[in-house]
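User: Here's a chain of 386 residues. Predict its fold as tokens.
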Amino acid sequence: MSELIIKNGYVYNTPARRFFKGNIRISGGVIEAIDNICRCDCGAEVIDASGKYIIPGMVDVHTHGRANADFTHATEEQCLEMAKSYAEAGTTTIFATPASAPYPEMVEAAKNAAAAAKKTRGVGANIDGVHIEGRYLSLEKRGAHAPKLLAMPDNEELEGLTEAIGNIAKRITVAPELPGGEEFVRLAVKHGYSVSIGHSNTTYEQALEALSWGVNSFTHTFNAMRGLHHREPGTVGAALTRDDAYCEVIPDGFHLNPAIVRLIYLAKDKDHLCLITDSMMATGCSDGVYSIAGLAVYVKDGLAREEDGTISGSTLNLLEGVFRFMKFCGIGLEEAIPYATKNPAVMTGIYGHTGSLAAGKRADIVILGEDRRTLEGVYAAGYKIK
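Assistant: Prediction complete.
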């Protein structure tokens, strides 16, 4: 891979939450330097980004699929095809997210994603981890997960999933109030998982107790969890009031009323809100009938529903989610970017190598046009994807 210099652009600085005029030098897929002096060495490829805005690639830690494939049943080849589609839409880092399935199928899904993770360079988005969102969920708050596929927390199964995922990052959503939940959560934390409460009917007190076991986040806040009540704050109450807990938010405008998105934004500090898509296989495709976790899902005008009307995943690209979040909350691009880059990376333990533009980090880069919205370029690990 030859050296690459992206010059004269407005480069996003995550700690300052602002843009400054500068240049990015990339070597071997890693950002070598960011400065305002363009040292154009002979042999380096030079991209003139004058008037354009350079931001970190999106980091989606909760996505089930796109491009007519899903991580629950995808082959290794299909995982790579999805990785390409993610990157083309501006998402350069993903956690492959299998949904509920029989245990052997979930192990196979984890193995395929982990195998594909070793082959994404030059293909598409980096598969930095696997997020298990399935089986160990509340029947009452199952959402789009088929009842017959749910199971109680099982430590032996967790060991098998951990082995299948291997050395990449691990995340798991669980309903901790289920029998065996505490031991399961503690074991997951011991194995290095970022553990999230989701599809859960926990009371406020139960959710706080689970946080003491090592849980650090809440999956798609408000969706598929016990709601907020003035005498029983529920799972949502714990999510909004614990400053050290991360909240996932789906900013498509369907899963949550925009006023609720703004409520979460106002309740959480700037470091503990994470935008995700929860996207399903119809993302990037036309309307029609698709399948999630064994259930038929009907997609019309970008909204995915089961036959009974239950919303079933999104068809959202995360970059578009950032723009919608800006509208819902009345904020600018400078403030919004970390919610889809830095915060999910910190939450899942991968911020050391991605989630911001800095020397020594992987060159995961998105270039926006002068309107600060049009996607004009994407680099994943230094490779040009778009």
